[in-house]
Amino acid sequence: MSEYRKWTLASHPVGVPDRDCFALVPCAFDDIEAGEVLIKVDYFSLDPGMRGRLSGDSYAAGLKIGDTIESAGVGTILASKSEKFAPGDVVSGALGWSEAVVHRDRGLKKIEQGLLSEKLSATAFIGVLGVPGLTAWFGLNDLGAPTQGDTLVISSAAGPVGATCGQLGKHLGLRVVGIAGGPKKCAYLSDLGFDEAIDHKAGTPLNAAIAAACPDGVNIFFDNVGAETLDAALVNMAPNGRIVVSGQVAEYNRENPIGIREVTRFITHRLRMEGLVVYDYAPKFSDAISQMAALINAGTLSYTEDIIDGIENAPDAYAGLFGGDNFGRRLIKT
Ligand SMILES: NC(=O)c1ccc[n+]([C@@H]2O[C@H](COP(=O)([O-])OP(=O)(O)OC[C@H]3O[C@@H](n4cnc5c(N)ncnc54)[C@H](OP(=O)(O)O)[C@@H]3O)[C@@H](O)[C@H]2O)c1
After folding, report:
1. Given 70, 151, 254, 276, which residue has the most CB atoms within 10 angstroms?
2. 170-213 pLDDT per residue, tens
3. Portions of the chain given CATH number 3.40.50.720
């Protein structure tokens, strides 16, 4: 490998980002210095939540023109000037949309090959055992405050966050209803053990579909979508219901967010709504990862990956997230 390519930000997007917002830049390798490693990036993730940072500041600073697009990745150490890593080690970390990266030896996690199995791939560490899975874990267990028998409704339930959340909910003894786009995704939710799947593209008004699926009301709404989906869930909340704001994917590309209309329900039904930033739970990550890895190995928790070949396809694959094209955790194989 004498040269590598990476995607940088070419312009701040308005609406769904198109290819012109990104530039594929050839790079020459620099020498690595003490405390650094050179990593060949094998896979990197495409995350809807990055959308905000392409246009401006979010809970982390916005990207500037020319910055490498940030994401989680799995890669192999090619060269090391660190005592922590040796050539051949497989690591996960914030590697970016790139074929290779020179990285400090901090913020990288060695993936022990002994942990991997048919059920657990290295890429799981940037999916079900990475930010998406941890968002589901802490959003449900902490903000959702689940009690056995509760009804949990999840929007974008077939995505990596939603599908993990639903399976964790079943494991806790909840009644789980997922909302997803199309019959294939709804069949997937049934295969995962969800009690009901609502196809938001089927034409039935969403509030009526939720009412039919949740005759006793919704105790926990785990929201990845926002806008009209959030209002449809709000009018079905049970007294003292909890709304976990994980994401607002239906709002990310709007200049003027739709927001919430059904606010009165908060008063009449004593509802509580709270957002999370998963990184706030960082001190508890390793315990959660161990528990979720045990569930995966026991066959209680599974995950689906949607792997697209070729770094050149990253922008289109990213835009497709906002049209519902992905089936599971969308990754680029470089
Ligand atoms: N708070 C945190 O710390 C944190 C961390 C990570 C992720 N998140 C959030 O978690 C959410 C889920 O992330 P993910 O990685 O698992 O991705 P994901 O759910 O797979 O997101 C893409 C999916 O969102 C749905 N979608 C896209 N545009 C939509 C629209 N306008 N209306 C309704 N549905 C739409 C589509 O599913 P359908 O085909 O089923 O409609 C699409 O396949 C995102 O909102 C993300 O920002 C939050």
Report:
1. 151
2. 999 999 999 999 999 999 999 999 999 999 999 999 999 999 99
3. 131-279
Convert the pLDDT of each residue in 15-63 to its tens digit.
999 999 999 999 998 889 999 999 999 999 999 999 999 998 888 899 9
Query: Rg for the chain (alpha carbons), in Å?
Result: 20
| Nearest-angstrom CA–CA distance, 317 and 283 | 32
> Where in the chain do CATH 3.90.180.10 domains reside?
3-126+303-333
Does the domain at residues 131-279 carry the CATH identifier 3.40.50.720? Answer: yes
Q: Which residues pair with residue 43 across a beta bridge?
A: 74, 333
For residue 325, the ligand 1 atom closest to its alpha carbon is 43
**pLDDT tens per residue, range 5-14:** 999 999 999 9
What per-residue confidence (pLDDT) applies to 3? 92
Residue nearest to atom 42 of ligand 1 (CA): 324
Ligand 1 first shell, C-beta below 6 A: 47-49, 131-132, 135, 156, 158-162, 180-181, 185, 224-225, 246-247, 249-250, 276-278, 321-322, 324, 326
| Residue 187 near residue 160 (C-beta atoms within 8 A) | no
Q: CA nearest 317: which of 29, 31, 42, 47?
A: 47
Residue 299 CA, chain-centre distance (Å), reads 21
CATH fold, domain 3-126+303-333, is Quinone Oxidoreductase; Chain A, domain 1 (3.90.180)
pTM above 0.90, yes or no: yes
> Which residue's CA is minimally distant from atom 37 of ligand 1?
324
CA 158 to ligand 1: nearest atom: 40
